[in-house]
Amino acid sequence: MEYKNRKGLPVGIESFEEIRKEGYYYVDKTAMLKDLLYRRSKVNLFTRPRRFGKSLNMSMLKYFLEIGCDKNLFDGLKISEDRELCEQYMGEFPVISISLKDVDGVDFKTARSLFCAVIGNEAMRFQFLLDDNTLSIREREQYKQIIHVDQSGRESFFMSDSVLMGSLKMLSGLLEKHYGQKVILLVDEYDVPLAKAHEHGYYNEMVLLLRNVLQQALKTSDSLYFAVLTGCLRVAQESIFTGLNNLKILSITTVRFDEYFGFTDEEVK
Questions:
Q1: CA gap 250, 77 in Å, rounded
Q2: Could you give the strand order of the β-sheet that contains 43-47, starting from the edge strand earlier in sequence?
Q3: 97-122 pLDDT, tens per residue?
Q4: What pLDDT, on the 0 to 100 scale, is given for residue 162?
Q5: Neighbouring residues of 243: CB distance < 8 A, sequence distance ≥ 6
Q6: Three-class SS string for the chain?
Q7: What is the largest CA-CA distance in the chain?
């Protein structure tokens, strides 16, 4: 009988929405929102070991910030006590959220195809852009290039190098024009493609691709409100963040934000 009243443990579940709706135990990390929104940098990079809750925190950020969010998910949590912040930020932004954890190919061609799939599948969430009359015909055509499906069946999405490298910047610009609001970009496990590329011998090609995608999205995009990236590794800044002077690196040795990843002693008790 006593087990009927216990909540489930969310082992392997990285969706904030699923944890809250299905009644799993959740260690409240929503105070991170206040610290991030009031003390953020333009680009914030969190590096932590695996199983420290990075992906769950990114999911939490998305469900709080994205336009059309279910505000009931945050009932009873710490952040709900700050009504002023919730009124100002909750559900107020277009959010682009991608995870690169599955960009794992034995060669660059396969990895590139998987990268296209990640971008294409996220872009498919915004198909209302096809019917948005505030966008020009050319802008709608640009969107079609991001969601173009390979008719040959060899790849799920097909993008030229120029389209792929500019895809996040382009999508940000289209969403800003549609909503009249700058975009928040979330990139989870940004370093996985680089680790896999190093393992399989195509590191230089992947560095070039990722550098171009991120630099255009994070440095030259006027549509970016702010961005959060997570990963296990701090990749040398010269490799993919060259020239990015708006990057704040928050590693495991950084005191700021440390209580929002993993569990504190009090939370364990």
A1: 24
A2: 95-99, 183-188, 224-231, 43-47, 247-250
A3: 999 999 999 999 999 999 999 999 99
A4: 95
A5: 215, 219
A6: CHHHHCCCCCCCCCCHHHHHHCCCCCCCCCHHHHHHHHHCCCEEEEECCCCCCHHHHHHHHHHHHECCCCHHHHCCCHHHHCHHHHHHHCCCECEEEEECCCCCCCCHHHHHHHHHHHHHHHHHHHHHHHHCCCCCHHHHHHHHHHCCECCCCCCCECCCHHHHHCHHHHHHHHHHHHHCCCEEEEEECCCHHHHHHHHHCCHHHHHHHHHHHHHHHHCCCCCEEEEEEEECCCCCHHHHCCCCCCEEEECCCCCCCHHHCCCCHHHHC
A7: 63
Written as one letter, the residue type at 19 is: I
**How high is the pLDDT of residue 238?**
46
Q: How far apart are the first and last CA of the chain?
A: 24
Q: φ, ψ for residue 181 (rounded to 5)?
A: -145, 135
**Pair 196, 106: CB distance under 8 Å:** no
Q: Which residues share a beta bridge with 249?
A: 45
* Mean pLDDT for the stretch of residues 130-135: 94
Question: Residue 146 has which token pair?
Answer: 């991001």
Distance CA 185, CA 100 (A): 13
The upper half-sphere exposure of residue 83, i.e. CA atoms within 13 Å in the direction of its Cβ, equals 0
Q: Each residue of 167-187: pLDDT tens digit?
A: 999 999 999 999 999 999 999
Record the pTM.
0.91
Residue 111, amino acid: A
Residue 22 contacts residue 205 (beta carbons within 8 Å): no
For the chain, give the percent of residues with pLDDT over 90.
63
Which tokens belong to 109? 């061609």
